[in-house]
Amino acid sequence: MIINHERGHDMDMKEYIDEAESVLLHTYNRYPVVLDKGDGVYLYDIEGKRYLDFASGIAVFALGYHNKEYGDALKAQIDKLLHTSNYYYNVPAIEAAKKLKEISGMDRIFFTNSGAEAVEGAIKAARKYAYLKDGRTDHEIIAMNHSFHGRTMGALSVTGTPKYREAFEPGIGNIRFAELNDFDSVRSQVTDKTCAILFETVQGEGGIYPATEEFMREVKALCEEKDILLILDEIQCGMGRTGHYYAWQRYGIKPDIMVSAKALGCGVPVGAFLLTEKVGAHSLAAGDHGTTYGGNPFACAAICKVLELFEKNDVLANVGRVGAYLEQRLDQLVQTYDQVKERRGCGLMQGLEFDTPVGPYINAALEKGLILINAGSNIIRFLPALVIGEEQVDEMIGILEACLAQEA
Ligand SMILES: *Cc1c(COP(=O)(O)O)cnc(C)c1O
Predict the structure, then answer these.
(1) Is the Cβ atom of 120 under 6 angstroms away from ligand 1?
(2) I want to staple 120 with a disulfide (CB 3.0 to 4.6 A). Which of 65, 154, 209, 248 is the partner?
(3) Global pTM?
């Protein structure tokens, strides 16, 4: 490849996009932008255009782009040791697990490479827990309609959007679906085979629907009564996004298993499932589960640095402050524009529901240098870096208002 060193790229965006479409499997309808670099809460495409990023790689880049301390820690670990396999111990994994235990209040941690894999592990742990109790192999899991848990077969099987599952049936089986925030719909699906109830503390892809406190309390009580495991998916809503390390921490309950990923690595592909001691001691044992890369020193050095920087920079306090400001500005849009129906969410995980599909607004915003994403056809999702400031919220609102006026 001949590199044009003046621009740093040998082709323009159109040429790269044509090339991409000739070599990559077409599983995404991508926006026509080739991104090149990031700095703070801004991204730049290969032609130098700047974008204010309110998606942060789908809730991944919590610390913003090009964070020097984070980058330096990764570089140092690259020079030291990238990978060992899980036949041996490594210090970053031990440190990362200790820190994660501290912020989550969970007891046992298994590191994975992605969110979907963490969900797979959570499902296996729940099934094994139930199997050790009664020896049966027909246990059921209750998941929620409109949920999203990932694209691997197990995670897909508990994802409550039929169109994602249909062509790939049969799934893992013995999954029942209920409605988030409708306790009776959950209770009516419980049988003597139910081993777990699984949901996102705040539904992300499904349209930014937080679990209500009442629902959370009732489900938790039901789980305790029947020794059913409560599994919370915190892959999108966790890691500080709602102003708590994990969104469930504001409800005064605790899950038996939770899954984390996305911002846990802030760009390095990682995930984890976390268990209470009760489940950890009575589920997956030696030989039951494994991964080649999961928990390797490089990935775990990333987790360690992320958690250290969260603390040092008081990221949760920033989410509390700027999240409240974002809510207020979005509420103003609901009041001002007829086509904007409702705001939902907590902290820096917000959704704005429109009365029509939001595609045209998102495209117009991109044109004006603002990256937004949707959640379902009628909802714009706001998932900025957790280090964002009020002035960037104002900048975003300014561009979005221009789009609302233009597309009205
Ligand atoms: C993104 C996401 C997943 C899947 O994570 P991957 O890393 O893409 O496999 C699962 N659950 C929720 C809530 C998510 O947002």
Answers:
(1) no
(2) 154
(3) 0.97
57 lines ligand 1 (CB under 6 A): no
Beta strands (DSSP E) in 183-332 are 194-200, 202-203, 209-210, 229-233, 257-260, 271-275
Q: Counting atoms of ligand 1 from 1, which one is nearest the CA of 151?
A: 9
Q: Residues 333-349: pLDDT tens digits?
A: 999 999 999 999 999 99
With a 6 Å cutoff on the Cβ, whether 159 touches ligand 1 is no
Round to whole Å and give the CA distance between 117 and 215: 27
Task: Pick from 58, 262, 266 the residue to mutate for probing ligand 1's pocket: most ligand atoms within 8 Å of its CB.
Answer: 262
How does residue 37 score in pLDDT terms, banded at 50, 70 and 90?
very high
The closest of 275, 238, 256, 243 to 101, measured between CA atoms, is 275
Omega before 384 within 30 of 0, i.e. cis: no
Q: What is the pLDDT of residues 84-130, one digit of tens each?
A: 999 999 999 999 999 999 999 999 999 999 999 999 999 999 999 99
Per residue in 179-209, pLDDT tens? 999 999 999 999 999 999 999 999 999 999 9
Cα–Cα distance, 197 to 256 (Å, whole number): 10
Whether the Cβ atoms of residue 112 and residue 271 lie closer than 8 Å to each other? yes
Beta carbon of 111 within 6 Å of any ligand 1 atom: no
The residue nearest atom 7 of ligand 1, judged by CA position, is: 115
Give the whole-angstrom CA distance, residue 122 versus residue 124: 5
> Cα(335) to centroid of ligand 1, in Å?
32
**Ligand 1 center from residue 47 Cα (angstroms):** 31
